[in-house]
Amino acid sequence: MNDAQKIQQWLDENRITEVECLIPDMTGLARGKIVPRHKYNPAEGLRLPEAVLSMTVTGDYPEQDFTSVADPDMRLIPDASTVRPVPWAKEPTAQIIHDCVNFDGTDAELAPRNVLKRILKLYEQDGLSAIVAPEMEFYLVQVEPDEDIPLKPPVGRTRRTEAGMQSFSIDAVNEYDDIFDVMYDWCEAQGLALDTLIHEMGTAQMEINLDHGDPLALADQVFLFKRTVREVAIRNNMYATFMAKPMQGQPGSAMHIHQSVVDADGRNIFSNADGSPSDAFLHFIGGLQTYLPAAMPFFAPYVNSYRRLSRFTSAPINLSWGYDNRTCGLRVPHSGPEARRVENRLAGVDVNPYLAIAASLACGYLGMTQRIQPSAPLTGSAYEQPHQLPRHLDDAIDTLLKCQPLAEIFGEHFIQTYSAIKEAEYREYFDVISPWERRFLLLHV
Fold first, then answer.
1. I want to staple 244 with a disulfide (CB 3.0 to 4.6 A). Which of 173, 185, 305, 334 is the partner?
2. CA distances from 329 to 62, 76, 257, 408, 416 (A)
3. What is the pTM of this model?
4. Beta strands in 228-341 (DSSP E)
5. Any alpha helices (H) in 263-331, and if so which ranges?
């Protein structure tokens, strides 16, 4: 049975009447089409304008055209492994993630899902497989349609907002049981492998961990998880936000990425036979230290992202590494040799998961192939160390454009397009005059 037949069988067995045909765009949002079941042919797929892949977060486009001036279509081909129900739909509805393909059968190189596949193929060519486990932080906030009004924590079951920060509080999580009960049910229905739920440092800030596994499957799960949590929150008169820094005076939200690499026999190559750290492990860290600054636009993709990266806020300001040291940008958790891994703490939860995971694995891969030695592990506070990362989006874009190894591994056309999208977003933001400027500069300068 081929993939199209498997999809047809699943749709029939679940009596599906409607199909949401999804692709993740550059921001990580779901684009695509909703098609009646009787008109959906998985063997043929469907079509969508290629220009969708060059849209900014505001729905605009870079000044320069990075897709054909003829505004052509691309084919969307369903991935049978991603067929899932839409638990919140009134009618039996399926959601299927599609791959973007050119009409000559080649992958559309601007599609984020294809970018991750491209990086994973580098590992496959060396007989290796990457393993990742994402951790996602997010805030629950009151519904506030006026974007000029600061966000506020939501009211829980006690009819009160949280008093101060409630790190790891069970009772604070229980304030929102109605949301999390539905969230777990809907995630289970979609096959999203949730691991741990905790209350993070911020007021009504939560963290969800996903089980470790294949990077593409995990990126798909992050993509779908964000949709799910937003939907659950809205139905409970709240917002769930994945902004990196949504509220003044509160910690930012990260998407930490745990990474390891296994060989064809499933052996973790970060450990030697005697259980000690391997050269590959050290070189992987060396690659992250060397290339993550240039890859910063994938981990901090918006102006808001850089507000999170400040001293003493559980967010990195440099790429020091250490054993079980949360002040470092790169942390190695305590584990046995078979579970030795590197936690990349740089990414905000506002990232496109496909691109962030791809970039992190690409930097580690370059470290292993170039045999880059890392710095010595840090035992003190990395917050006392100097800044090593771009401080603003425009600086980060310039750094990315100058990094030839990343251009070669991602493709020059993709890097140029992504950078132009970020430049367009930065220019649009720079035109906005903030309340701070009006308050302190209007009559004082």
1. 305
2. 32, 37, 11, 25, 27
3. 0.96
4. 238-241, 255-263, 321-323, 330-332
5. 279-291, 296-299, 305-308
The phi, psi pair for 317, rounded to 5°, reads -120, -5
Smallest CA-to-CA distance from 411 within 125, 131, 106, 133 is with: 106
Question: Residue 85: left if φ>0, alpha if ψ -120 to 50, beta else—which one?
Answer: beta
Q: Which amino acid is at 268?
A: N
The whole-angstrom separation of Cα 63 and Cα 51 is 13
Measured torsion, CA atoms of residues 341, 342, 345, 350, in degrees rounded to the nearest 10:
-70
C-alpha gyration radius of the chain: 22
How do residues 225-271 score in pLDDT, each as one tens digit? 999 999 999 999 999 999 999 999 999 999 999 999 999 999 999 99
Report pLDDT digits (tens) over 392-427.
999 999 999 999 999 999 999 999 999 999 999 999
Q: Are the C-beta atoms of residues 36 and 18 closer than 8 Å to each other?
A: yes
Nearest to 232 by CA among 201, 196, 208: 208
Q: Following DSSP, what letter does each residue of 203-238 receive, concatenated?
A: TTEEEEEE--B-HHHHHHHHHHHHHHHHHHHHTTTE
431: buried, middle or exposed (CB in 10 Å: 19+, 13-18, 0-12)?
exposed
